[in-house]
Amino acid sequence: MRFVNTAAWRLRDPSEERLADADELLAWLGENGIGSARELKRIRSAWQADVGRGEAAYRDAIMLREAIYGILIARIEQHAPAEAALKTFNQMLARSMPAATLNWISGDVGWSLTSEGDGPDLLKPIVTSAAALMTGPRARRVKQCQDDRGCGWLFVDESRAQNRRWCAMGDCGNRAKAHRHYQRTRDQERR
C-alpha cells in the first residue's frame, strides 16, 4: 500500500505526487527496503549515463502504481477494473515472474526475487506483493480512507470488526473526530 499511496490526496484535483522523478523513485525504493544501497547506486549511475532509461523506468513505476490503484478501487467499489489497468499490471507481472524462483530459505519455502535490472526488475517486489494482496484473503480488507478532505489513501483494515474508516487514526481520523466535536459544540451553543 505504501507504493500506491505515493500519490496523496487522490480525491482532490490535483492530487499530490510524492514521486516527482526517477531520483525520488530510487530514494523511495531504498527507504522501503527494495534494493540494496549498492544496487540502487549502480542503477542511479546507469540512469545518469542514460537519462532515457531512468525516465522510462520512472514512467513504468507510475503506470504500475496507477494500475494497482485502479484495480484495488474497482474491487472496493465492486465493479470490474478498467482493461487498461489490468493490461498494464499483467504486463508488469509477466516481466517480473520469469526471474522469480522458489527456494528453501531458513527451513521453509520462500520466494527469491532478484532485482538486477533497473526497470521492471526493480519493481518486481512491488508487482508480486500487489498480486499476492489482490488475489489473497486480505483483498477483501482493502479500503479507501473516508477523510472528507479527499485523502484517498488505501489501507488494509486489520481491525477485528472490519470498521476502520481512515488511513491513520493519528491523521485523518483525528481530524474527522475533531471536526465532528467542533460541529456538535457549535450546534449546542446555537440552541
Brief digest:
Pfam families: ABATE, zf-CGNR. The protein is mostly helical.
Describe the structure.
- It is a single chain.
- The protein has six helices and six strands, in the order E-E-H-H-H-H-E-E-H-E-E-H.
- With 191 residues, the chain is mostly helical.
- The protein has one domain.
- The strands form three sheets. A two-stranded antiparallel ribbon has the order 1-2. Strands 3-4 form a two-stranded antiparallel ribbon.
- Helix 1 (22-31) packs antiparallel against helix 2 (37-49) and helix 2 (37-49) crosses helix 3.
- It starts with 6 loop residues before the first strand and ends with a helix.
- The model has no long low-confidence stretch (mean pLDDT 86).
Rg over C-alpha atoms, rounded to the nearest angstrom: 20 Å
Question: How many separate domains?
Answer: 1
Could you estimate the helical fraction of the residues in percent?
Answer: 40-55%
In terms of per-residue confidence, which ranges show pLDDT below 50 for 5 or more consecutive residues?
Answer: none
Structural class: mainly alpha
> What's the overall geometry?
globular
Mean pLDDT: 86
One letter per element, helices H and strands E, the order comes to EEHHHHEEHEEH
Count of runs of 4 or more consecutive helical residues:
6
Number of strands: 6
Beta content comes to 5-15%
Between the first and last Cα atoms, what is the distance in angstroms?
45 Å
Major β-sheet strand ordering: 1-2
Major sheet size, sense and barrel closure: 2 strands, antiparallel
InterPro entries: ABATE (IPR010852), ABATE_dom_sf (IPR023286), Znf_CGNR (IPR021005)
Domain Zinc finger CGNR: 141-184
Protein name: Zinc finger CGNR domain-containing protein
